[in-house]
Amino acid sequence: MADTEQWDDPEDVNTEIEVDLEAEVExxxxxxxxxxxxxxxxxxxxxxxxxxxxxxxxxAGREFEIDEPRIEVIVxxxxxxxxxxxxxxxxxxxxxxSVARNVTPSNRAVIFGMLAAFSVEDLVFLGTAVLQFKDFxxxxxxxxxxxxxxxxxxxxxFLNLSQSRDLRDSIQDFFTGLGMADGFLEGLNV
Length: 190
Fold this sequence. Notes:
This protein is mainly alpha-helical. The protein has helices spanning 21-36, 71-97, 107-117, 120-130, 136-145, 150-163, 165-186; strands at residues 56-59, 62-65. A hairpin with a 2-residue loop joins strand 1 (56-59) and strand 2 (62-65).
């Protein structure tokens, strides 16, 4: 049985440790790349995203080449995430209101709420965007007609993310702004 450290005083625990998650992930990926002998960065000449070796995603017998997403694709990805975030916050609030009144969910609670609220329809909307369909309506129709698989859509999401600085910056700026707005919005009765 392993020894576990006991805290005598709960105030000895720093619950507000800031971690640069992006830097931690990059360091971990760089360490894995060193161990595997693979290059750590995107090969500018080949246009292939780092870590994937190919920007092709196969799903239901069809192949999708995921290039740097055009602005319509970026907006559709953000809309799909936003739609899920709204429902996630609602789910988090329902859970937290059973414990206390007038609560404001943390970003972490919203993310877990998003996972709890995630549906097949969310996957269809996100999949249409990350697979970069030219016609989003046609993409949703096709995705509803096949047996959906999560892994190719997750890969397509990260291929879009790895190839679009605009998408990465938009998501990062959103969460930075959300953190700044938390204090400002506290005083408003909305």
